[in-house]
Amino acid sequence: MKIYDVIVVGAGIAGCSSAYFLKKKGLDVLVLDRSGIAASGGSSAAGAFVSPKIGKGSKLQTLTNEAFEFAKDFYREHFPQYFKQTGVIRIPKDGSDAKNFDEYEKSNSSSRELMETEQLKALGIDDSFKSFLFDEAGICDAPGMCQALIENIPYEQYEVRSLNYKKDLWLIGEHRTKKLILATGYENKFVDMRYMGVKGTWGTRGDYETNIKLDVSMHKQISVSANIDGIVKIGATHEKGVDVCIRCNGEPLEGIFGTAGSMVDTSDFKLKETFCGMRSGSKDYFPLVGSVIDVYEMLEQHPKLPKGVRLKEAPMKIENLYVCNGLGGRGFVFGPLMGKMLADNIVEGKEVDARVNPDRLFLKWCRKSPDLESYRV
Ligand SMILES: Cc1cc2nc3c(=O)[nH]c(=O)nc-3n(C[C@H](O)[C@H](O)[C@H](O)COP(=O)(O)OP(=O)(O)OC[C@H]3O[C@@H](n4cnc5c(N)ncnc54)[C@H](O)[C@@H]3O)c2cc1C
Question: Residue 13: which CATH number?
Answer without folding.
Answer: 3.50.50.60
